[in-house]
Amino acid sequence: MVKKVKAALLIIGDEILSGRTKDANLNYLATWLTDIGVILDEVRVIPDVAERIVDNVNDCRAKFDYLFTTGGIGPTHDDITAENVAKAFGVDISVHDQAKQLLADAMGTDYLTPARLKMAMIPHGASLIKNPVSAAPGFQIENVFVLAGIPVVMQSMLLDIENRITGGSKILSRAIHVFAGESTFADILVEIENCYNHLSIGSYPFYKAGSYGATFIVRSPLENELNQAFVELGNRIQEKGYEFHEGEAP
Amino acid sequence: MVKKVKAALLIIGDEILSGRTKDANLNYLATWLTDIGVILDEVRVIPDVAERIVDNVNDCRAKFDYLFTTGGIGPTHDDITAENVAKAFGVDISVHDQAKQLLADAMGTDYLTPARLKMAMIPHGASLIKNPVSAAPGFQIENVFVLAGIPVVMQSMLLDIENRITGGSKILSRAIHVFAGESTFADILVEIENCYNHLSIGSYPFYKAGSYGATFIVRSPLENELNQAFVELGNRIQEKGYEFHEGEAP
Predict the structure, then answer these.
(1) How many contacts, defined by CB atoms under 8 Å, are there between A and B?
(2) A78 touches chain B (CB under 8 A)
(3) Range 142-171 of A in CB contact (< 8 A) with B
(4) Contacts from A102-106 at CB under 8 Å and sequence distance 24+?
(5) Which of A173, B36, B149, B229 could disulfide-link B71, Cβ–Cβ 3.0 to 4.6 Å?
(6) Taking CB atoms and an 8 Å limit, are A74 and B205 in contact across chains?
(7) pLDDT digits over B51-90, tens only?
(8) H-helix or E-strand containing A44?
(9) Listed residue (B115, B116, B119, B52) closest to B88, CA to CA
């Protein structure tokens, strides 16, 4: 049985949309999810606008098995993620004792000005997600994981949630590359893909060291299917008179 | 008068969602749009799935002034963007004479196998977007611009569309940084932001060279408003006993 578990990522932040900051969380989270058998099925980047957060959280948590958000959980006025996740769930938000304690332990009680206490505001019913880098926690409410936007903090929070996520069938993949345009093999790719139930073949052109070529990624949750299709693809490439190499492009 | 023109970007490609490929188009397009007075207001990354493309194209072209798509316009079976943009608009798609000629001119007529002719399939009513890098064109249909996924090709296509886009008021910005946590200034930021109609202040913590600090980006379409708020922010930071520096963090 092939079981598909799907997730969405909501990246919240004007600075990504203005081009000022390059997002680094999408690719990291995509790889991390793939490794635990979760398919990242959609990503949305939205500005720090209350109703946009509420609407997208509610849309995505209904459509996907898991939703991750990044960004907007700091201490300043433009950090409005937590309050709007609470609004999306229709729950109240207030200072969470354990979150406050985590901040006090890390920074001292003098540190806890009203602005900083904002980082301890957690929607009711949520559980904390540890932040070993800078103390201010993320939180989980139902199938929604609210994470920091700073990449090193976001990544550290994943350590605390891996055991809360139930992955599906892991997608296995093998890569093959050829030094010829992908269009030469377009007919083969679709024929092979159509022969298998769970198989997909991605075709990615590359230009490197003065040569152009293509990498084909064969993917399936079933090892047998994957290996059979991979051998067939190699044979068909050879029949056309081209050499192939296993692995990514050089 | 402040005029807002808003765009969305739809990134189409399994390879971004699986983590195999790092997207480079979001940041480039975000910066390019900001420079011509267009606000990138939402980005979505979706897989190569027909109905997802149709639904998202129709949703975004209705909600935003412009929609850009990247990816899925190559010659292989997993390149399904053009046909589904046609479907979204309810128009037919067929080989476009001028697009075919562009491919023939660049590659020779022998090159034009059925698979490669797929790159000349253009929805009816669309106009071509030149691709000086590898010939296969993109296209514009109404307010939707369909671009390649390979960054160098996508960037080259923008040269042909800048004159088709009417930007709004350009958002001006000035940056200030301090060597102190952003939470120290949380109250100031919100007070200043609330004093002006079109102003926004973004707060971005950083950790560099063993010190931590924050960069505040003051943004407004009105130069007077921007400069007045910027001076006020500097004064208020000094009143709290901190030095500030104009410009991005070191």
Answers:
(1) 167
(2) yes
(3) 150, 171
(4) A102/A128, A102/A131, A102/A135, A102/A136, A102/A137, A103/A135, A103/A136, A105/A135, A106/A134, A106/A135
(5) B149
(6) yes
(7) 999 999 999 999 999 999 999 999 999 999 999 999 999 9
(8) strand A39-46
(9) B52
Whether the CB of B39 is below 8 Å from some CB of chain A: the reply is yes
Q: Which domains does chain A have, with CATH numbers?
A: 6-164 (3.40.980.10), 172-246 (3.30.70.600)
B237 touches chain A (CB under 8 A): no
Q: What are B23-45's pLDDT values in tens digits?
A: 999 999 999 999 999 999 999 99
SS (H, E, C) B111-162: HCCHHHHHHHEEECCCEEECCCCCCCCEEEECCEEEECCCHHHHHHHHCCCH
Tell me the three state secondary structure of residue B36: coil
In the structure encoding, which two tokens stand for residue B124, read together?
Answer: 């009816």
Per the document, the length of chain B is 250
Those residues with Cβ within 8 angstroms of residue B217's Cβ, 6 or more apart along the chain or in another chain: A15, A20, B173, B174, B175, B201, B202, B204
Across residues B103-115, what is the average pLDDT? 87
Q: What is the pLDDT of residues A194-204, one digit of tens each?
A: 999 999 999 98
Which of A28, A40, A184 lies closest to B17 in CB terms? Answer: A40
Alpha carbons B199 and A46: distance in angstroms, whole number: 19
Q: Which of A193, A200, A205 sits opposite B150 (nearest CB)?
A: A205
Question: Quick check: B44 and A43 CB within 8 A?
Answer: yes
CB-based contact B34 A18, cutoff 8 Å: yes
Q: How far is CA A121 from CA A48, A111, A116, A131, B83, in A?
A: 18, 16, 10, 15, 47
Q: Which residue has the higher pLDDT, B250 or B182?
A: B182
> Which residues in A lie closer than 8 A to residue B149 (C-beta atoms)?
none
Average pLDDT rounded to a whole number, residues A72-80: 93
pLDDT in tens, B170-222: 889 999 999 998 999 999 999 999 999 999 999 988 877 777 889 999 999 99
pTM of the entire structure? 0.93
